[in-house]
User: Fold this.
Amino acid sequence: MAISTQQAVHAAQQSNIYSLDAIIAGTGIGVWAFDVDTLQFKVCPTFKGLLRLPNRNAYNFADLLRTIAFSCRKKVIKEIKNICSSGGNVAIEFKVAADQALDCRWFKVTGKSYAQCDDQQGMYMGILTDITEEKMKEIWNNDRLALLSHELKGPLSTIRLYLQRACKISTDKNVDDAAIFMDKADEQVSAMSLLMDDFLSYSTVGNTTMTLCYEWFDMNLLVSNIVGEMQLKYPGYTFVIDVPSQHIRADKRKITQVILNYLTNAVKYSPAGSGIIVHCSVENGKLKMMVKDKGIGIDPEYHQKVFDRYYRTPGTKADGFGLGLYLVKEIINQHGGHVWVESSLNKGSSFYFSLPILMNTD
Assistant:
């Protein structure tokens, strides 16, 4: 029985995909082919294994789309439509669906069109590769940049406040008082410089561990200085300190970031003129710090999520990246401590962290 030229080309292409798969099977790269006429995908065993597909001879778009994380599907569908309309090359990145065994794995599909005849696209062929490692490095570096931007806002706003105070005082020719605020502004510039140094160290390829610089300091003195700055920035709020004189060995700068994040959130989500309490106690060899506000509160179902990266509690309208509490958790975890929240809707929130007073820092 005679066969057409188109059928012969199609058969050769189908043969090529499996021959190619035999060559690169040991590389962990999957091979695929998509027939425009039948709208069916043919994939090699490696491809099936990478995406944990059921063992079939062919798959449709819906079969493959189900393996893709919901957050990536809209973008993938849009890119596929663009490729089909333009006939361009395929280059799509996606994450597997959250309920798949390969959670948090990233893949890239690449390929191109192979025409069966002059006026027809016919078939797309290409490969599937696991790009999880490079994608996680990219996400890590993006996180560092976002965290840096988040943390620089505090020193910048404080510098602006001190400079405004200094300018106002200098017009009254009270030079000595103006110099005090200028010194405070200089301290914040130094803090920004150290944050930049942290960012550069975090962004080193392969470096995903936060570096801690331990020193002894008095928690009461630290909290008093932080609250003093907050009171200048937010004169409409009342801050109450109940912190004993307790020395602890930790990274002072990073614990400062933690307390500032808690206090800033308390102001952000509390009505003007309300009170904010900073309480500290020592229990079973651990220092426990609490920042309590009278704000909008958080539904208990979200308590475990508020410290996740990029998480924003539903219904909140305040600006931000959703990174402040994530940074708090990372810092306290690195110190061997713990973070948690106690809150109910419309009844305020109490954010806590605990730290071991004596820690092995070797």
